[in-house]
## 1
Amino acid sequence: GKSGYDHYMLKEINEQPLSLRQCTRGRVDELAGTVGDEGLDGLDRPDRVQFVACGTSYHAALYGASLLRAAGVQADAYLASEYAMTPCPVTSETLVVGVTQSGETADTLSALRIADDRGARTLAMTNVVGSSAARECDRTFLLRAGPEIGVAATKTFSTQLVGLAVLAEHLADAEGADPDLVTALRDLPDLAQQVLDESRAAEVAEEFDGMDAYFFIGRGLHYPVALEGALKFKEITYEHAEGFAAGELKHGPLALVTGRTPVFAVVAGDGALARKTLANVKEVEARDAPVVVVSDGSQEVAGYADRVLEIPESHPATVPILANLQFQLLAYHVADRLGRPIDKPRNLAKSVTVE
Ligand code: M6R
């Protein structure tokens, strides 16, 4: 049941600290060299990694491809429905990873079959034991998020990001390995709990419902978070939402920005990336857009943001997971205020078994 929550989605959002703990159990220690893992044990470094996925899982794949490249592994993310049409280099040393919480998404299964025909090795990253993806791939990495009933993917997305961080660390070359990430993954469930406990997303939802459109922006690893923030928002609120790479705003989307289009930006870390996103925040603020910044406090954002959604400081690879929790709660609260059928949005199914 819903354990007292009005919706499965809210229950599942709140279960994330536990899901994250289950996902890292045994694996994060393995990175320290002590425990084996059924998904990645003995997996050699491939010549390249190709991710195939749809929807929210594709956003996870974009994050995974960035992390792998930073770890010194060639990696690309493909929309599963486009993979067949995309000529791309595949050898017997190529690893194709299907990121699919259900393990039953037809587009993803079909891309994995094409990968197999092309001679690649395949890995399913899935939440469902015995799913088609798990049965058909050479290897399975189980997310262990626990059952997800709401059509909107929440805890499976967060655990996908963790799984992909673990994969990146597993495949990293000597230069790419990052012991700080191991510590950050261990600390993540507590930080996630803190975000859930202290989130002001409900107040922000109250302030900004009934606007014309909602835009989400981020750079680097926060770009997939912007895309995911917008997808979740449109999926359950039925309001128009779009995610953009922050730097792309002035190449077109800025024409849409008005005083009735709130812009949600992720600004975290003290590097150039955050400073540049902050510059984009100033651009939209100058066009009167209401601005909400998800901030870890490392940039001075108060002067530009109408509202701040705070997250604790953490490793660059775990910040996106924490930032996304704020966007999940925001989408949930706006949808709830609008009286939407949050767990079963119109026209959508939990797993999409047709191409
Ligand atoms: O089961 P999968 O991860 O393969 O599903 C892929 C998408 O259909 C899914 O993520 C969809 O975008 C969600 N409903 C988003 O919340």
Note: The pocket of 5-amino-5-deoxy-1-O-phosphono-D-mannitol is lined by residues 54-57, 100-102, 105, 108, 151-153, 232, 235, 348, 351-352 (CB under 6 Å).
## 2
Amino acid sequence: AAKAQTGSHVRRYAVELDDRARAEAQLGAELRAALDTGQFRLVYQPIVSLPDARVVSVEALIRWHHPERGLINPVDFIPVAEQNGLIVELGAWILRTACAQAVTWHTSQASSTPVRVSVNVSARQLAEPDFADLVAEVLAWTGLSAHNLIIEVTETAVFRGGQSVQTVKDLHQLGVRIALDDFGTGHSSLGLLHTVPVDVLKVDKSFVDTITMAGRHAVIATALIQVADGLGLSAVAEGVETAEQAAELYRLGYRLAQGYHFGRPVAEPDFHGTVIAAETAVA
Ligand code: C2E
Ligand code: MG
Ligand code: MG
Ligand code: MG
């Protein structure tokens, strides 16, 4: 009986794996159609200066508005797009759209200063031999200055092989700023700083979450701002959800932050941000 039961567990597991593989294959096929019929949108989340909550840049984040399934978040389809290669084409669309939008905001006076936009780039895109050329073309085509574009990479992506390390160097040479995303996690660590030029460390939300707790919880956030300061890099604290966290980050020396406390990702961010600024001032 025990054996039969184990067998049925194994079978159920196999069926579940099969279902999952099928669902992913289905999703992969739908991604193509989604790109062709305009189901993707970008939303933008402010990155603000502490303590005044002035918007200094925005991070572009992709959303999929599926006709039947509704809103699908990037964690549920970016890996699939990465797997089947569509991320290359999708990523080019993301880059063009984000850069064009940044220029539009400035020309339409939605922002009185030029808008800096941060774009996430995945391993497969970075490994493409012509990725730096694509970025140069998009900058020329949209008229965005290179120094107003920030490319967010992870260590995992940079070390995936191929051209990636050279591509990051080429991007930096163009004047594009390089941000190391999820810094401090397994995806991005100190080692990378010896290999590629980095301008910004994005300190992972996991280190911000515990910052206001007593004891040792702020040690890593403290160490990471010291690394950034010591190397002359900017540091952005990710995933700031409360005023207490913002105040503590400021006290530790952080001057840039991003998180729901300052603003969720939206289609049209408020570049003047006066409403939030009053609530979030921590100095
Ligand atoms: P990420 O680049 O680290 O982006 C930050 C994620 O944290 C975003 O999730 C954002 O909505 C979320 N977030 C921001 N503030 C808070 C907060 O205060 N609390 C909480 N709980 N979450 C917060 P999102 O948009 O779901 O994106 C998840 C990940 O998917 C991104 O992590 C990035 O790795 C990837 N991704 C998103 N958009 C793109 C894209 O256009 N291209 C590529 N290649 N990857 C993308
Ligand atoms: Mg990011
Ligand atoms: Mg991040
Ligand atoms: Mg992250």
Note: The mean pLDDT is 90.
## 3
Amino acid sequence: HRDLLGIGQLERHEILFLLDEAEQWVDLNRQTTKHSDALAGLTIINAFFENSTRTLLSFEIAGKRLGADVVNMHAAQSSVKKGETLIDTAITLNAMRADAIVIRHGSSGAVDLIASKVDCPVLNAGDGQHEHPTQALLDALALRHALRERGHKADDFTGLTVTICGDILHSRVARSNILCLTALGASVRICAPPALMPAEIEAMGAKPFHDFDAALEGTDVVMMLRLQTERMEGQFIPSAREYHHLFGLSKDRLQRAAPDALVMHPGPMNRGVEIDSEVADMIGRSIITRQVEMGVAIRMAALDVLTRRTRGIDGWTNDGSG
Ligand code: CP
């Protein structure tokens, strides 16, 4: 591959390859001298047309820890506000001869469109309700590390049950995670209110639930997602109180899951709505901070792997099939 547009474009062995590549950066990021010069002389543009804290900062840190020059384009301060089209913006970025472009955009498919117009690798940092591939990869890496500490030997998730609960309809994180977790062997349960449940859950290999207590029964991992009210214009928006009552993860509710079940959330969290603070901060159970830590390693791996051809290193994957 030249680009990283979605988990849907990756084979299982390619997902595992990216996770394995990220392992070296987990170790480096824990050292005091955090630097590599693998990408020295390359320019990476982060073009974000939607708000971000974790993804934007971790791509910037990842690029800098690899020695690249990183520049950020915030749509709110760009000429997009003066009416420039997406394609003209892409042509403009291309003319600056970036070596990789990282894009977040509010429209599903916008990142694919830009990828078709530029000469360098494009990395999807979240496009509308479609995909957020580096989020699913960092979630898988965080889960792998937490399971390893508990004695889990396999590198994949065969035999594991993961329950994802929240606003699935609007969630690119849910979509990418369903694809990634099922590819790695996990059984995935999806829980959402009927109005926020997409039609294709079973076709994607996951099991839909509307009752959160039933979805939690015996699950090994619970991944909570926020209500994306910014994508609900004109739709019925449940009140925070009633949503919490039916779909919020409280300490009591977590007891339905397997003993020691792990708790995940991609952030940003709405504490007291989809997740209670005492669960989000539960030592030994919540791996939310570790997810953020793994985000830097995964983005370093993605930038490194996708720029290998530019740097005269063969292929996207080890076997050269990419
Ligand atoms: N999880 C995630 O994508 O967070 P940001 O929106 O802060 O980047």
Note: Residues 52-55, 126, 135, 266-268 surround phosphoric acid mono(formamide)ester (CB under 6 Å).
## 4
Amino acid sequence: MTAQVKHYIDGQFVLGQGQTQITVTNPANNQPIALINAATEAEVETAIASAKLAFKSWKEVPVSERARVMLRYQHLLKIHHDELATILAQETGKTFDDAKGDVWRGIEVVEHACNVASLMMGETVENVARSIDTYSYTQPLGVCVGITPFNFPAMIPLWMFPLAIACGNTFVLKPSEQDPMTPQRLVELFEEAGAPKGVLQLIHGDKTAVDILLRHPEVKALSFVGSVAVGQYVYRTGTDHLKRVQAFAGAKNHCVIMPDANKQQVINHLVGASVGAAGQRCMALSVAVFVGEAKTWIPELKAAIAKVKPGLWDDKEAGYGPLISPAAKARVIDLITQGIEEGADCLLDGRDFAVAGFESGNWIGPTVFDNVTKDMVIYKEEIFGPVLSCMHADTLDAAIEIVNASPYGNGTSIFTACGAAARKYQHEIEVGQVGINVPIPVPLPFFSFTGWKGSFYGDQHAYGKQAVRFYTETKTITARWFESDIEIASSPNMTIG
Ligand code: NAD
């Protein structure tokens, strides 16, 4: 049965009037599971107008009451954790455990948003001059927007709207059109948590909807997560229209494996971090740089990766699911083919993989290349598939040089038993999130998600204190009170009113 995806505009769940229909498919067999009527321009306008109106009253709601909405939301998300993960797994193809992780990492951000009063505290200095004090407040901006990708349909919307709204803003969410049902359920639960009408709006669509949001004068700040090309476009267009923009983009994450590392741990970690979630993670480790004799572990690594079997979301034995779409699959197959043609050694080729009974799905088996070089397309492009590229370096310095030459800077890891090597790596590496014997170093929400270079455009990052700065303006007050007025105020002849 095909469901109809709903927008949430001005406090109502509506089907949408748009003539453009988008079909949401099950990636395991490409059968339709839901239909979207993309939002019309008028619907996007209504959503923004409603968010603008709601801002007037929402910003006056005391911060502790706003926090209580987040507390109720966090509680509801936990109650509905399995249900959300099931919806998410069915529309993305992720395994159930992976889908639960996607939801959980979002819940953690909502927990963080419950602490909004402390996060919004300003600064004070008494007596900056005689009888003069200076103090600052953080105040919300107005209507904020989130544009999110397909690969974390729970976590990434939850990176954005809970903190923005807890800070007193109102929010318009435009999630990926490839898996819109998880965000729809997140919004239903937010309403159930007691968020007033208009505070959160949900509109579905593609570039057409994004283009209106990017240019709309009432939109004050815009958070984007997605591919490099679209991220650059969103950043340029949004800032050109004088908005605050944070754009998280693509990645090519390297790990460096020193010969003194714990071999078994390296192999275990690399299996999950490279091909887990079909490699469709912005923090996936897609390049492994083996230093010196560590390269002798590659055959064992390949054997471990070869054991990972893709499968259906509810198959407990499945290592990962299908890619999101036939286009994504075709792109990854094309890149693997180019890698072979360019002369990389393809140790494991996943191009012909299919799950029995689901041959029409977007499957790709785990794939491993060795002797990849910096000039190859499979090295330069973000593959976003279950493909690991192995490279070699003679020294740690040479490995650092490889990583720092990459235009991306989302995440990286070093595996070593040597503290000095780890410290040198963390200090010299030009990447925003560094793991030491930790394969996917995604910071918890009290830190921020701090990608660098071509993986991020903007300055304040997602969640943590930086997100609060992104979604607020600082007001600095300098106040002077005259002691002589105290006598007047306490005089019996003074009348008030
Ligand atoms: P995408 O860029 O195709 O889509 C992201 C959003 O932009 C969607 O909502 C989509 O509707 C919209 N969009 C698509 N094309 C557009 C256009 N031409 N103009 C305006 N809007 C457009 O990304 P995706 O394929 O959904 O997600 C995968 C990408 O996201 C990967 O590159 C991955 O690395 C990246 N990603 C980055 C991070 C990070 O934190 N850096 C996190 C997750 C995903």
Note: Residues 49 and 218 are 8 Å apart (CA to CA).
